[in-house]
Task: structure prediction
Amino acid sequence: QVELVESGGGSVEEGGSLTLSCTASGIPWRDFSMAWFRQTSRGGRETVASMGSDGKINYIFAVKGRFTLSKDNDRNILTLHMTRLNLADTAMYYCAARKGSVGFLDAEEYSTWGRGIQVTVYF
Result:
């Protein structure tokens, strides 16, 4: 059974940093792409960063240079290190997985989701 569990969210002052972790079980890493999405009350889930099963990493423009995605294959943990956070980064963040090599896709392409974790940036 595939399961994703997010951790590491919380509240942080603008300009600060947070690290989100997604612990995966039941996933053969070599066959799955992974991603972090975020969702606010105003809209749908947008892809923040993704890693294809081939290791290729993509970021949306809004977070390039500030967020770093990495994966620990030994412990099955996907990590999103977020720096220079701003108010627009406030959202519920979700970890997701899909079978296939391409990672940078819309939410509809992902089949497995964590429950989400809140990130709040305050002024």
Q: What stands out?
A: The chain has a mean pLDDT of 94. The CA atoms of residues 92 and 118 lie 4 Å apart.
